[in-house]
């Protein structure tokens, strides 16, 4: 079984990817500093798989600790690098924290990988690199634009670092997956998103509102140039997204990948915020309390992916509908309520 190191493997997308990797016959090894994740993710993974997954409580900025992991786990075939801070608003308030953590962890990881001659990397990027695109849907050839937050800039800079490495003659092979909006949870409802405090993202805010934890959802603006005036996003089920990592790893392992490759990972369909709310209501039968508020500064009015490249090159395809994703997010919210009331 090929060992794949998964940094941030206890996080939202990381935990789902650990499950999919295992089911595809890989042996994931988790590295996580638990700064934005919880041990319960490991319990959820173990419960789904029927066995525990090796996990190191390690910070990717700590070269010595990361070196220890590579020494203990001989024969790592590749790495998926999720570990990063991801709150857009926080990154505006604390830019240095974001640059230090997100860029430092990648460069530290690359140095350790080089030392151990591990030369296959999947990197978590984001559609944020496209900024406010001139044309929709966005393809991988759509120009990358100036980032509108330090968080977005760290994704752009990390892609540039990997590009520089690719042209340097290094034997590193990297695939950067540009995620659109990941939502939902594992169908078992044993793992899912664990937002700390008030959620920034739409779907956890929806599920917490329906569960009575939040009073109401505010929809940020209904005066955009879209059919119902609310912003358009490409909401991709987190399990479909996790599977994109497996096929990216397959491609790297097969030796078919170029020095660096970029792929959009979305569904190819844009939905407005109101459509997302309606999909939640339809799927769950819950009535959502919401109001229209002012626009949120920095929001991209509309973006959705052209996924032709991922489909043709990786064989990636999504299988879940927006309703199914919403239902799974709701099942996960219910699971959280039940397990925290027992605690
Ligand atoms: N929204 C609301 N109310 C809320 C939360 C969100 O109306 O309480 C709206 C937003 O205005 C936006 C849509 O729901 O139109 C989606 O918002 P999210 O915050 O869930 O996601 P974003 O598209 O803003 O951000 C996501 C990732 C970022 C990434 C960005 C790239 O969370 O990490 O996509 O575009 F940088």
Summarize the topology.
Layout lengths: L2 E5 L4 H12 L3 E6 L6 H11 L5 E3 L5 H10 L3 E6 L6 H6 L1 H21 L4 E7 L23 H18 L5 E7 L1 E3 L18 H9 L6 E4 L11 E2 L1 E3 H17 L5 E6 L5 E2 H12 L5 E4 L14 H7 L7 H21 L1
Parallel strand pairs: 1-2, 1-4, 2-3, 4-5, 5-6, 6-11, 7-10, 8-13
Antiparallel strand pairs: 9-12
The structure holds uridine-5'-diphosphate-4-deoxy-4-fluoro-alpha-D-galactose.
Uridine-5'-diphosphate-4-deoxy-4-fluoro-alpha-D-galactose (UFG) binds next to helix 7 and strand 8.
Mean pLDDT: 97
What oligomeric arrangement do these chains adopt?
A: single chain
State the strand order across the main sheet: 3-2-1-4-5-6-11
- Count the strands? 13
Rg over CA atoms, rounded to whole Å, is 19 Å
Instruction: Give the SSE string.
Output: EHEHEHEHHEHEEHEEEHEEHEHH
Low-confidence stretches: none
What count of helical segments does DSSP give? 11
What general form does the structure show? globular
Bound molecules: uridine-5'-diphosphate-4-deoxy-4-fluoro-alpha-D-galactose
Structure description:
The chain is α/β, with parallel strands linked by helices and 343 residues long. It has helices spanning 12-23, 39-49, 63-72, 88-93, 95-115, 150-167, 202-210, 238-254, 273-284, 308-314, 322-342; strands at residues 3-7, 27-32, 55-57, 76-81, 120-126, 173-179, 181-183, 217-220, 232-233, 235-237, 260-265, 271-272, 290-293. The chain has a seven-stranded parallel beta sheet with strand order 3-2-1-4-5-6-11, with helices on both faces. It has a two-stranded parallel sheet with strand order 7-10. β2 (27-32), α2 and β3 form a beta-alpha-beta unit. α7 (202-210) packs across α11 and α9 (273-284) packs across α11 (322-342). The model has no long low-confidence stretch (mean pLDDT 97). The structure holds uridine-5'-diphosphate-4-deoxy-4-fluoro-alpha-D-galactose. Residues 86, 88, 126-128, 152, 181, 200-202, 205, 217-220, 231, 233, 273, 296, 299-300 line the site of uridine-5'-diphosphate-4-deoxy-4-fluoro-alpha-D-galactose.
